[in-house]
């Protein structure tokens, strides 16, 4: 398996092009699954207060034996912790559970627009970064308008916006906004949970063309869009498969036709080759 490449965020920090989602990875089995992922080359672990597994993530980091500076831990502030001081207190609580002296990337999990305190929360995160509690700060599930408000009110653009993104929902306009403002896109639900995505004839045929699995086709599509997918798996073999997507390249036309699945532009079933795609 090729090493997972990294990119540089708008604040100068490094960030992997693919990471591990840890939702529902809890207890000793969850720790072992995360350690296995790190052993396989994963360097980004994505957790959140609401996942109730920050303690396990921290323990996996310690057990892995990998230099702490080579691992990136993400956590998130829940909606109930919105506000300036509340955000700082939430980060400190996450640090206590993780057992770490710094969170590498901290996100606002949800803008919680009915409460309308996400700008205050963002200011608290900026202060937490300045205090050295976190290295990078970002958001999750924010729209263009909400991102614009954060930038205009504080002058600080999020390093990352983690959003639902997959071939049925490619978020083209939002990704374009991210590129304009130097915000890294991160994909949750990258395989479109509880959907027929991996059985789409197009995805199956492209897997055959590239001699990879349908899952690998979709995850490679994410990375070539410039987004970091964070697939979740507790199975070591599946973890390795998910991360082994940097040894082949989709053509621009192949990326485009996968993105067109959102618009219902169904593939007509003709044989696909590298040249035709």
TrEMBL record:
<feature type="binding site">
    <location>
        <position position="109"/>
    </location>
    <ligand>
        <name>substrate</name>
    </ligand>
</feature>
<feature type="domain" description="NADP-dependent oxidoreductase">
    <location>
        <begin position="17"/>
        <end position="261"/>
    </location>
</feature>
<dbReference type="Pfam" id="PF00248">
    <property type="entry name" value="Aldo_ket_red"/>
</dbReference>
<keyword id="KW-0521">NADP</keyword>
<dbReference type="InterPro" id="IPR018170">
    <property type="entry name" value="Aldo/ket_reductase_CS"/>
</dbReference>
<dbReference type="InterPro" id="IPR023210">
    <property type="entry name" value="NADP_OxRdtase_dom"/>
</dbReference>
<protein>
    <submittedName>
        <fullName>Aldo/keto reductase</fullName>
    </submittedName>
</protein>
<feature type="site" description="Lowers pKa of active site Tyr">
    <location>
        <position position="76"/>
    </location>
</feature>
<dbReference type="GO" id="GO:0016616">
    <property type="term" value="F:oxidoreductase activity, acting on the CH-OH group of donors, NAD or NADP as acceptor"/>
</dbReference>
<dbReference type="InterPro" id="IPR020471">
    <property type="entry name" value="AKR"/>
</dbReference>
<dbReference type="InterPro" id="IPR036812">
    <property type="entry name" value="NAD(P)_OxRdtase_dom_sf"/>
</dbReference>
<comment type="similarity">
    <text>Belongs to the aldo/keto reductase family.</text>
</comment>
<keyword id="KW-0560">Oxidoreductase</keyword>
<feature type="active site" description="Proton donor">
    <location>
        <position position="51"/>
    </location>
</feature>
């Amino acid at each position: 398996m090729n090493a997972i490449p990294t990119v540089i965020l708008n604040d100068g920090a490094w960030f992997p092009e693919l990471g591990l989602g840890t939702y529902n990875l809890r207890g000793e089995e969850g720790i072992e699954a995360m350690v296995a992922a790190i052993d396989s080359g994963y360097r980004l672990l994505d957790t959140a207060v609401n996942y109730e597994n920050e303690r396990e993530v921290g323990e996996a980091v310690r057990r892995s034996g990998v230099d702490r500076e080579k691992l990136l831990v993400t956590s998130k502030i829940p909606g109930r912790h919105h506000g300036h001081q509340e955000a700082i207190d939430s980060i400190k609580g996450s640090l206590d559970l993780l057992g770490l002296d710094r969170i590498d990337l901290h996100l606002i999990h949800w803008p919680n627009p009915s409460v309308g305190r996400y700008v205050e929360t963002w200011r608290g995160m900026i202060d937490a970064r300045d205090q050295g509690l976190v290295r990078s700060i970002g958001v999750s599930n924010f729209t263009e308008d909400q991102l614009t408000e954060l930038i205009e009110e504080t002058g600080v653009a999020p390093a990352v916006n983690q959003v639902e993104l997959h071939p049925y929902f490619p978020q083209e306009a939002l990704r374009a906004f991210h590129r304009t403002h130097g915000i890294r896109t991160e994909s949750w639900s990258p395989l479109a949970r509880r959907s027929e995505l991996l059985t789409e004839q197009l995805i199956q045929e492209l897997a055959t063309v590239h001699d990879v699995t349908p899952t690998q086709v979709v995850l490679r599509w994410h990375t070539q869009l410039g987004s970091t997918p964070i697939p979740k798996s507790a199975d070591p073999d599946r973890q390795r498969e998910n991360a082994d997507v940097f040894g082949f390249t989709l053509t621009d036309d192949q990326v485009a036709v996968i993105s067109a699945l959102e618009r219902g532009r169904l593939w007509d079933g003709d044989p696909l080759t590298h040249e035709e795609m």
